[in-house]
């Protein structure tokens, strides 16, 4: 039955939880905001430190003999590529009397097709005057080359048409000679041959006239194309605005940095697999979230944040104090990623219990953080973990320890027979949360509940486990309670009688920092 329950749970779990991904990325806003700010600064600095070189621009109207209304820009793209040839670059450099190599000069200019017949030429140089001179020389070289090619094309076409016309004339002369040699008074067979010769002569006359007309049109059309190819916008320096360039570069850097930051945060979230939602943490630990507490605010926090945190701490202290009073065994607070907050919670709970009798805090945190601090008037006694045996039996004990990597698991039993896990959201990986639940189950330390530190304020998921049978990897049925420290858990006894149910001790509910959130 456990296998079927686990398989059903795996089938219902999505491969990628988008809600958890969004929450985790939002929690890492410092990362992507920092990268966005860095991109903004680098973009602005790049525009200031590396301004663009002086640039001049001109526009050339290019007429083509093959122009069509439905042209997709093929002809103007051809002209742009022709502009980037050593022949035109050499002509421009000759006009400028410059010793520069055409290959180097080609790196300093570019052509852009604006329409089917309009091309923009941009040229960079050391100064604006030199850029304007280069743009003019380059435009003149392109126009001259285009005109030369149009003339050569028209001349070659006209020559071909005239040669074809001459061949037709030679054939026409042979036909006329054949007609002159025939006798008009011949028989009917000769008459049919003469009629075909006359028809051929008429066809040749028509074709000769057509070739002559087409040759004339080729000659006449060339001046129109030559006159249509011209510089329509004189070369001029392109104005450069440093503030505008800085704003543009900064905006581009901001967007790129933001996209990079979001991508890094998303990938890091998926790879790290650190649960941040209540239901994820509860499912991985196999225990319900009983309370939430915002991260302890800094000194610069706003007044309303301090009030909200104090109210949440007060509710949590009351709830944990009530739980400790009703427990027959010592209770411990085990932290994961929030040692300082756990110390504060332990002191608050100990102060609340001090009115009913002596209370001692057993400090099992790495470095004995509580035992080594200076004790203030009214604070409960704090002893280190190795001195826990010296505490009298009639004195109520409250253990404080850690389940972070490197924990000595066997020492946790001396802190308390039952525990409350204090976990910071997004700190431990899912694998480590499973490890914590498994180790506590092997030590027979029931988990009363989980106190979630620094939760996502927009988290509306449920952190209560109604049936936690599939959540722990080992010992899932003995995890909860052992009456008076011994015996068998009720869940274990019920395994052979019917469907297993996880029974939990009654746990008080503590409302979270936000008024609309409550974890039971």
Automatic annotation (TrEMBL):
Homology family: Belongs to the CpsC/CapA family.
Superkingdom of the organism of origin: Bacteria
Coiled-coil intervals: 144-178
Residues in Polysaccharide chain length determinant N-terminal domain copies: 16-95
Cellular localization per UniProt: Cell membrane
Transmembrane segments: 31-49, 250-272
Record region (Disordered): 478-520
Membrane association type: Multi-pass membrane protein
Pfam families in the cross-refs: Wzz (PF02706)
Protein name: Membrane-bound polysaccharide biosynthesis protein
């Amino acid at each position: 039955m456990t296998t079927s329950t686990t398989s059903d749970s795996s089938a219902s779990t999505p491969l990628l939880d988008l809600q958890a991904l969004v929450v985790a990325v939002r929690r890492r806003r410092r990362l992507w905001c920092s990268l966005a700010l860095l991109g903004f600064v680098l973009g602005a600095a790049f525009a200031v430190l590396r301004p663009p070189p002086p640039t001049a621009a001109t526009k050339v109207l290019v007429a083509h003999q093959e122009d069509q209304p439905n042209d997709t820009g093929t002809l103007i793209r051809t002209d742009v590529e022709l502009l980037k040839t050593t022949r035109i670059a050499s002509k421009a450099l000759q006009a400028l009397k410059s010793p520069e190599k055409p290959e180097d000069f080609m790196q300093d200019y570019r052509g852009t097709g604006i329409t089917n017949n309009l091309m923009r030429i941009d040229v960079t140089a050391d100064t604006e005057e030199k850029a304007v001179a280069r743009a003019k020389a380059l435009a003149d070289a392109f126009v001259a080359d285009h005109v030369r090619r149009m003339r050569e094309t028209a001349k070659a076409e006209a020559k071909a048409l005239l040669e074809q016309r001459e061949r037709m004339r030679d054939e026409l002369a042979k036909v006329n000679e054949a007609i002159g040699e025939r006798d008009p008074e011949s028989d009917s067979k000769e008459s049919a041959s003469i009629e075909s010769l006359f028809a051929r002569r008429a066809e040749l006359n028509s074709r000769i006239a057509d070739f002559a007309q087409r040759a004339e049109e080729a000659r006449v059309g060339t001046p129109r194309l030559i006159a249509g190819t011209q510089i329509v916008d004189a070369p001029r320096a392109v104005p450069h605005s440093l503030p505008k360039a800085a704003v543009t570069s900064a905006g581009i850097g901001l967007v790129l940095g933001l996209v990079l930051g979001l991508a890094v945060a998303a990938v890091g979230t998926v790879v790290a697999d650190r649960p941040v939602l209540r239901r994820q943490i509860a499912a991985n630990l196999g225990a319900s979230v009983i309370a939430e507490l915002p991260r302890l605010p800094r000194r610069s926090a706003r007044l309303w944040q301090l009030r909200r945190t104090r109210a949440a701490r007060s509710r949590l202290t009351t709830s944990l104090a009530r739980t400790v009073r009703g427990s027959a065994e010592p209770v411990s607070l085990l932290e994961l990623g929030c040692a300082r907050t756990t110390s504060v919670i332990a002191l608050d709970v100990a102060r609340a219990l001090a009115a009913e009798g002596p209370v001692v805090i057993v400090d099992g945190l790495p470095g004995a953080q509580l035992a080594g601090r200076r004790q203030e008037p009214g604070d409960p006694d704090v002893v280190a973990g190795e001195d826990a045996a010296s505490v009298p039996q009639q004195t109520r004990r409250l253990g404080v320890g850690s389940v972070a990597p490197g924990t000595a698991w066997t020492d946790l039993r001396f802190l308390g027979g039952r525990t409350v896990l204090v976990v910071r959201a997004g700190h431990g990986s899912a694998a480590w949360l499973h490890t914590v639940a498994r180790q506590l189950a092997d030590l027979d330390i029931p988990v009363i509940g989980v106190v979630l530190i620094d939760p996502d304020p927009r988290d509306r998921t449920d952190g209560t486990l109604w049936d936690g049978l599939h959540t722990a990897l080992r010992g899932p049925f003995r995890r909860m309670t052992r009456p008076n420290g011994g015996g068998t858990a009720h869940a274990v006894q019920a395994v052979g009688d019917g469907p297993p149910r996880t029974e939990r001790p009654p746990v008080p509910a503590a409302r979270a920092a936000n008024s609309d959130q409550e974890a039971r």
